[in-house]
Amino acid sequence: MKKFLFIIFAITPILVFAQQTLTLEECYVLGEKNYPLAKQTALLEEKANSEIKVLEKERLPKLDLNAQATYQSDVIEFPLQIPNSTVVPPNKDQYRATLDATQLIYNGGNIAANTKLKTAELAAQQQQIAVNLYTLKSRINQNYFSVLLFQEQEKLLLSKMEQLDARLKEANAGVKYGAALPASEQMLKAELLKLKQQLLQINFDREKALKNLSLLIFQNLGNDTTLDNPDILVAPEIDSKRPELELFELQKTQLETSKEVISKENYPKLLGFGQAGYGNPGLNMLDNSFQDFYMVGLKLNWNIFDWGKTKDKKQAVDISKEIVSTEKETFVLNNEMQQKEAESDIDKYEAMLLKDLEIIELREQVLKATTSQLQNGAITSSEYITELNNLYEARIDQQLHKVQLALAKANYKIIKGF
């Protein structure tokens, strides 16, 4: 008994996975989560953090160790002799080793501005990835609803086969007791084989579409996977929330931040410096011996005139902002056109579905009468099959229009960005 329970618990997860049901929203989440491009979001953040750390380290003191040995062809000599003193000229071979330190005291907020720019660049780059990942939804839609269509067509074919099988049993009995001709039975068998062939083709097509969907969402979907038929609501009154709109705003923010960096470039920079060394000669050129020495001080650098470079750079940034604005206007215009087209498709399929209901109702009444006539021997199997095909063609058309309506609604939601 324990062994039996162990086997049941062991195979339960496999059965659950094999018979899993997926929704459209789950496919969206899986696609965006597992698509290789999604990894760049974290990588870009790591890269930006590293670059910001490099910028922040500009505030730390810099230490340089320098050493040199030189030999020169001539040195300073005094042309006159000073009484009671002897001035020895420096050696032609000279040696020096120094430790130099510099400390940034003030740079007009240039580091802070560049840090802010890196943050703005990161936000824009990550949003660009979000835009690229968003396009996955349209590809998922196409494959998802293709699988769904084959799934629903399979159900209709199985239902049709049940009806044909019931008529075939009746024909078998009729032939057995001489109430029907063998040709009637053979015709029903041939039609049943034709349905099995169609079912086989649908299964292959469904499997192909399912594999494509598996690649997009990075999940191994078995043939027993069932896709949920989504009930999608559209809301034309809601404003568009496409990720591209946020990207345009972030790009403008990035450009505006770059203007701050340009402005800071010409601010005065104040540095503190110090030098400690040992050499021959030292700072006293008249002392021809090895000496230690040091020096400390302040250094100010201020570019007070740059020939209008800053102004030109800012003007270039303003032009880039105008380009982004025109790109946004173009996107909004095209997006509105896509919305109108999607709304028209939705209205079209809803109208067609209303007609499908009327057609199916009439076809069912005709088939009901035809079935009774076949059972009473008033018509042939060929006539019955014709009406049965008419009914199921109408039902397949109805199912096709349902899937097309759901796809149109799903695409509309993607176009609107919600």
Describe the overall structure:
This is TolC family protein. Belongs to the outer membrane factor (OMF) (TC 1.B.17) family. Its main location: membrane. The chain is α+β, with helices and mostly antiparallel strands and 418 residues long. The protein has a single domain (18-68, 92-416), classed as Outer membrane efflux proteins (OEP), CATH 1.20.1600.10. The protein is built from 9 helices and 6 strands; from the N terminus they run H-E-H-H-E-E-H-H-H-E-H-E-E-H-H. The chain has helices at residues 2-18, 24-34, 39-56, 110-134, 136-176, 182-217, 243-264, 309-375, 381-416, and strands at residues 21-22, 62-71, 93-106, 226-227, 269-280, 291-301. Helix 3 packs antiparallel against helix 4 and helix 5 packs antiparallel against helix 6. The longest helix has 67 residues, at 309-375. The chain is rod-shaped, with a radius of gyration of 41 Å.
